[in-house]
């Protein structure tokens, strides 16, 4: 069967964009090639495989889990149902981290709840002088992260937040994208394929954020920073908890949709952060 014909058929059910993405994945060719050559022929096995992945997608399985990877900060990261799918909003946390790290010569970084490792690995690749460590309670997630970290010096270990971080450890920056969805949130219906333990955090979605904020000062070096991602309605409670935990220069940054997304604070005042536009101009290619 020709690519154009099967795309027309699947496109009426999925939408042409997703139908084309899935077909390119099954055929192992760039999407651009399908656009330029709709007359390309599928083998019988490719046609069968394509119909199967279309059914998976129609049932709600995310494309990233079907294809086994997701782009983040311009790089492809392997993902499985053991880890959350990296999202564009989390790039704000990485951009913030990279700006903070610019003031340190050889900074130590801890990524709590590393999941796929996309935050830790991106920081390490964008700032090779950083000594990055990531932890997660899930062993399957750690295996995914280790695969994504190949070729870097990122170290991973098993820990629930700070539980297995050695006493006396100090970091210039601690980052985390922890679970922050409330137990009864209606958004969970759209996230049924992703690991619930990486999403849900108590009745208000604040349990893990609270624990991280309160315990982080013990593991930060002088002038150290904490930066966390959170829900669009959690900026106020996060800022309050940062202040109560002894952080100064506390502020919340908004994502591209204009929603509160990242709150950060430090143990001693340092130069003011640049705007997000300025940070993006300085992003490494």
From TrEMBL:
Any matching Pfam family: PrmC_N
Catalytic activity: L-glutaminyl-[peptide chain release factor] + S-adenosyl-L-methionine = N(5)-methyl-L-glutaminyl-[peptide chain release factor] + S-adenosyl-L-homocysteine + H(+)
Keywords: Methyltransferase, S-adenosyl-L-methionine, Transferase
Domain of life: Bacteria
Enzyme Commission code: 2.1.1.297
Residues annotated as binding S-adenosyl-L-methionine: 113-117, 136, 161, 177
GO MF entries: peptide chain release factor N(5)-glutamine methyltransferase activity
Any GO BP: methylation
Residue span, Methyltransferase small domain: 90-183
Residue numbers binding substrate: 177-180
Domain Release factor glutamine methyltransferase N-terminal: residue ranges: 2-68
NCBIfam families assigned to the protein according to its UniProt record, in alphabetical order: hemK_fam (TIGR00536), RF_mod_PrmC (TIGR03534)
Annotated family: Belongs to the protein N5-glutamine methyltransferase family. PrmC subfamily.
Biological function: Methylates the class 1 translation termination release factors RF1/PrfA and RF2/PrfB on the glutamine residue of the universally conserved GGQ motif.
Protein name: Release factor glutamine methyltransferase
